[in-house]
Design brief:
The protein starts with a strand and ends with a helix. The chain is 23% helix and 27% strand. The chain has six helices and 19 strands. The strands form five sheets. Strands 1, 2, 5, 6, 7, 8 and 19 form a seven-stranded mixed β-sheet that branches. It has a five-stranded parallel β-sheet with strand order 10-17-11-12-13. A three-stranded antiparallel β-sheet has the order 14-15-16, with no helix packed on it. It has 314 residues and is an alpha/beta fold. The protein has two domains: 181 residues, FAD/NAD(P)-binding domain (3-Layer(bba) Sandwich), CATH 3.50.50.60; 123 residues, 3-Layer(bba) Sandwich (FAD/NAD(P)-binding domain), CATH 3.50.50.60.
């Protein structure tokens, strides 16, 4: 069993940033970037990233991730292309089990992210119009040229759906919220914002049944669940706003979580287990941006380094 000072579980902006800082501090970190789970996280499914500082002309999500990765490796990070199937936080050093070997770690950074929930709608799947007009992050993708001055559709009924719809009014000609019930789940103030916004319309008791287009989304089919009446609408984009699921199943309840399943952090990135830190979307259910994930990855690495120093491991 190999013993390491610091193991980072998960890649993407948080994991790779943590690795860059840890490697520059001579911690020789090991980073599990994933294999079946997408290495690089949600950025790998994003086309143009236009809101990450330093890239005035934008950059593709996969290219940005590859730059993170190269920088981490340059400073001495060992990247393992495996998923972590199990961790044991009841023993110390902690045990981290990859698909091939088990490692011991004096400190851990969890940066496994969260997966956007998607509905299985014909036309919205991988290999169809996913990331060609269908997305799950309005703030990430809404400013893209393909969405400008076109009717846009948001699926959902909570605060996130309202926030995304209102954000999209900056770019789309009109924004439709498609909700399968006759009332929203969102907070009262958010409902009022949606109902009173001149560019937002709510399609009550409705579901999207199909997405159609050519190289990009051109239309969506809507069905009223009460009357079964189907209508076809011109559309420039479809946005899922039906929540995210944090990737914490492999922890098997060993860390304290919020009721929504995200890792609970204290005083920065510390978790309920001493020596374990969390960064990125796995602990952030409010912002969920690449730049905030990178920032928390930096913080987690610095806190892990300070903790390891206090304990006399480095």
């Amino acid at each position: 069993m190999q013993k390491k000072s610091l193991i980072i579980i998960g890649s993407g902006p948080a994991g790779y940033t943590a690795a860059i800082y840890a490697a520059r501090a001579n911690l020789s970190p090991v980073l599990f970037e994933g294999f079946y789970s997408i290495p690089g996280g949600q950025l790998m499914t994003t086309t143009d990233v236009e809101n990450y500082p330093g890239f005035p002309d934008g950059i593709s999500g996969p290219e940005l991730v590859e730059r993170f990765r190269k920088q981490a490796i340059r400073f001495g990070t060992t990247v393992i292309s495996e998923d972590v199937g199990d961790v044991d936080l009841s023993v110390y050093p902690f045990h981290v089990k990859g698909s091939k070997d088990t490692y011991e770690a004096n400190a851990l950074i969890i940066s496994t992210g969260a997966s956007a929930n998607r509905l299985d709608i014909p036309g919205a799947r991988d290999g169809e119009f996913w990331q060609k007009g269908v997305t799950a992050c309005a703030v990430c993708d809404g400013a893209a040229p393909i969405f400008r001055n076109k009717p846009l559709f948001v699926i959902g009924g909570g605060d996130s759906a309202i926030e995304e719809a209102i954000f999209l009014t900056k770019f789309g000609s009109r924004v439709y919220i498609v909700h399968r019930r006759d009332q929203l789940r969102a907070s009262k103030i958010m409902q009022e914002r949606a109902l009173n916004h001149p560019k937002v319309e709510i399609l009550w008791n409705s579901v999207v049944t199909a997405v159609e287009g050519d190289t990009i989304v051109r239309s969506v089919a809507i069905e009223n669940v009460l009357t079964n009446r189907q209508t076809k609408h011109e559309a420039g984009g479809l946005f899922f706003a039906v929540g995210h699921t944090p990737n914490t199943a492999f922890l098997k309840g060993q860390l304290e979580l919020h009721p929504n399943g995200y890792i609970k952090v204290f005083k920065g990135t510390k978790t309920s287990v001493e020596g374990v830190f969390a960064a990125g979307d796995v602990q952030d259910y409010e912002y969920r941006q690449a730049v905030t994930a990178a920032g928390s990855g930096c913080a987690a690495s610095l806190q892990a380094e300070h903790w390891l120093t206090e304990k006399g491991f480095i």
